[in-house]
Automatic annotation (TrEMBL):
Involved pathway(s): Purine metabolism; IMP biosynthesis via de novo pathway; 5-amino-1-(5-phospho-D-ribosyl)imidazole-4-carboxamide from 5-amino-1-(5-phospho-D-ribosyl)imidazole-4-carboxylate: step 1/2
GO MF, any single term: ATP binding
Protein family according to the UniProt entry: Belongs to the SAICAR synthetase family.
Record domain SAICAR synthetase/ADE2 N-terminal: where: 6-235
CC annotations in GO: cytosol
Source organism of the structure: Pseudooceanicola pacificus
ATP-binding is among the record's keywords: yes
Catalytic activity line of the entry: 5-amino-1-(5-phospho-D-ribosyl)imidazole-4-carboxylate + L-aspartate + ATP = (2S)-2-[5-amino-1-(5-phospho-beta-D-ribosyl)imidazole-4-carboxamido]succinate + ADP + phosphate + 2 H(+)
NCBIfam families membership: purC
One GO term of the biological process aspect: 'de novo' IMP biosynthetic process
Keywords: ATP-binding, Ligase, Nucleotide-binding, Purine biosynthesis
Enzyme class, UniProt record, top EC level: ligase
Identification of the protein by name: Phosphoribosylaminoimidazole-succinocarboxamide synthase
Enzyme Commission number(s) of this protein: 6.3.2.6
């Protein structure tokens, strides 16, 4: 069977034309990048793990009434999603100080924040995804005020869900980023959680040891990225508890 038409290729995923109008096939690559793609590698099995983990989180959100673009998983590396118009923002939710927040404000990593902080970055790799305010977003027409109210509500609901899921398996949700897309149904528009939710887009620390179980393992050379992602999948029940193969993980169907 001929490969469907490629629509877009990013650092971690490839998007293909879907089998039905309004659908897209999202393929997860093994590529790992950091520091705006200045650091690169190929981590065998990473795409398989992120596909299954994103399926797990998106399905959970759909089940509690938080709309996402996810329809179903097709195979070990691909999932079927709804086509949507992506708002050109990265929506970042922070529960603990880490990464750029610690650098900007001089707050020690791991410090609990008094409340979840939501930040926005303009999606443009050439500019390094700069942080922007709601004033910028309104001025440049990236989203309306109603959109931003809905984006904030979605982000906080995702945070509540992910925090609870992770706490139940002994993992601290330090922060995460999501993308939001517009789906049109006739003249009606609604916002949905799009792209992916995986250890690529979250900071996850073991609650007892502080061990990093996210892409910081790759960014900071802290060990095996696949080991870290596999541990997250194992705790969440996405992988069998007795799974020992790391390089080519076998996931349950």
């Amino acid at each position: 069977m001929a490969r469907r038409k490629k629509i877009y290729e990013g650092k971690a995923k490839i998007l293909y034309e879907g089998p039905e109008p309004g659908t897209i096939v999202q393929y997860f690559k093994d590529d790992a990048t950091a520091f705006n793609a200045q650091k690169k590698d190929v981590i065998e099995g990473k795409g398989v793990l992120n596909n299954r983990l994103s399926e797990f989180f998106m399905t959970g959100l759909n089940n509690i009434g938080v709309p996402t673009h996810f329809i179903k998983r097709l195979n070990m590396r691909e999932q079927l999603v709804r086509a949507c118009e992506i708002i050109p923002l990265e929506v970042i939710v922070r529960n603990y100080a880490a990464g750029s927040l610690s650098k900007r404000l001089g707050i020690e990593e791991g410090t609990a924040l008094p409340r979840p902080i939501v930040e926005y970055c303009y999606k443009d790799d050439k500019l390094g995804d700069p942080m922007v305010t709601e004033e910028h977003i309104a001025a440049f027409g990236w989203a309306s005020q109603q959109d931003m109210d809905d984006v904030l509500a979605l982000a906080l609901r995702v945070n509540d869900f992910l925090s609870g899921v992770m706490m139940a398996v002994g993992i601290k949700l330090v922060d995460f980023k999501i993308e939001i897309g517009r789906v049109y149904e006739g003249d009606f528009q609604r916002l949905v959680v799009a792209d992916e939710i995986s250890p690529d887009s979250c900071r996850l620390w073991d609650m007892e040891t502080g061990q990093h179980l996210d892409k910081d393992v790759f960014r900071r050379d802290l060990g095996s990225l696949t080991d870290a992602y596999t541990e997250v999948a194992r705790r969440l029940g996405v992988m069998p508890k007795n799974a020992t193969q790391i390089t080519k993980p076998t996931l349950i169907n």
